[in-house]
Structures are given as C-alpha cells and as structure tokens.
C-alpha cells in the first residue's frame, strides 16, 4: 500500500483557522463552487494539455479525487484540501514523491481569492512541508512557479524557500509552454520547522496568521 500509509498518511493538520485534510469524493460540490467562482483568478496558472497530446475527456471531480487518493495509497502523493474555518478554500498537493537516495517531492497549491492575503497559503504550505520533512521523512521540497505569478512567489519567499533558477518552457500552462522559477528547501535549512519560521515572520511583520 505504499510507505505513506505507515509514515503519516492519511493525516489532518491544523494551525489557527487553517486545516489540511485528504481530498474526498464528497468534496465535489464545495470544490466545484470554489473553483468555478475563481475560474479567472486561477486560469493563468492552471495546467493545460499541449497540442497533439491525447487529451481525452476532462475527468470529473470524483474521478480526479479517486486518482489522487490512489496515488497517495501508492506512496507517490499527498493530496490535501485547505479548509478555512471549516470551509474548503483550495488545495495543497505534494506530488512526485521519490524515496531512496533522493527523498524529495514537488509541492503545488491554489487558494480562493476571497481569502487571499490572510496568511492562509503560507500556513498551509508550512503545515504540508513540515509533515513531509519531519513525519514522512523527505529531504527536499521543490516548488515551481511562473515568474509572472507574484502572489504565489510571495508565499514561498515569506517562508524562506531558496530560488534556484529558471526552467525554460517547463510546463504547459494556460495554452502554451511556460517558464518556471524553481524554489526549494532541504530539511537541514529549517531545523526549527517551517511553521515556526512562518510564525516568527508574521509576528515580526504584523501579518495575519491564517
């Protein structure tokens, strides 16, 4: 069933108003409402299928949720939804989990525009990253972001992720191949934990904590 089931999955995590839990098929209505309402907010940053690729039919939410949960059971992914005061407001997905000598993963996220600026996303990313580092046992977390996506870049910059460089035409986003900046952290760089680092940052800057 995969290492995640014995190393901290499924799991629920929380800090203040923000909580993470595994995605569920019954999240369909809430997820669709948030995603539809934020279509224009998210469109520029969402993956698309390149020309010539076998597109097929777009999966339903329940099909997507089943796939994500099966990947989690195989130890390749942690698919979280983000809750704010109990209401679904986005996702954090840890994907491409690689064990052995690399012990790394990619982290991606999106959030409802209605709660942007309240510290929800940095809190959610810190919760997920700490779980990966200190419970799952990963060594490296990587986040790839389009250079134009200033709000997403601010999330990882507040948390102290290192910018490692540009990957030209890295992913097909919003209808074309787009450059992405690579941000990363190794566990040795945050011995106190990323959540503790985020608490210190928001206290020092008088920011909301989520």
In short:
This protein is α+β, with helices and mostly antiparallel strands. Helix content is 31%, strand content 30%.
Write structural notes for this entry.
- With 210 residues, the protein is α+β, with helices and mostly antiparallel strands.
- The protein has a single domain (3-205), classed as Aminopeptidase (3-Layer(aba) Sandwich).
- The chain has helices spanning 28-37, 39-43, 61-73, 120-136, 150-158, 194-205, and strands at residues 13-15, 18-22, 78-84, 87-98, 104-111, 140-145, 162-173, 176-186.
- It starts with 12 loop residues before the first strand and ends in a 5-residue tail after the last helix.
- The mean pLDDT is 93.
Give the arrangement of secondary structure elements.
Blueprint: E1 13-15, E2 18-22, H1 28-37, H2 39-43, H3 61-73, E3 78-84, E4 87-98, E5 104-111, H4 120-136, E6 140-145, H5 150-158, E7 162-173, E8 176-186, H6 194-205
Parallel strand pairs: 5-6
Antiparallel strand pairs: 1-2, 2-3, 3-4, 4-5, 6-8, 7-8
What CATH architecture label applies?
Answer: 3-Layer(aba) Sandwich
Question: What is the general shape?
Answer: globular
**SSE sequence, one letter per element:** EEHHHEEEHEHEEH
Low-confidence stretches: none
Instruction: Give a quick account of the main beta sheet: strands, pairing sense, barrel closure.
Output: 8 strands, mixed
The CATH topology: Aminopeptidase
Approximately how much helix is present in the residues? 25-40%
Specify the structural class: alpha+beta
Count every helix, treating DSSP H or I runs of 4 or more residues as helices.
Answer: 6
Q: Spell out the CATH superfamily.
A: Gcn5-related N-acetyltransferase (GNAT)
Radius of gyration: 17 Å
* β-sheet strand percentage: 25-35%
> How many strands in all?
8
Could you tell me the mean pLDDT? 93
Distance between the termini: 34 Å
Number of domains: 1
Widest β-sheet, arrangement of strands: 1-2-3-4-5-6-8-7
CATH classification, class level: Alpha Beta
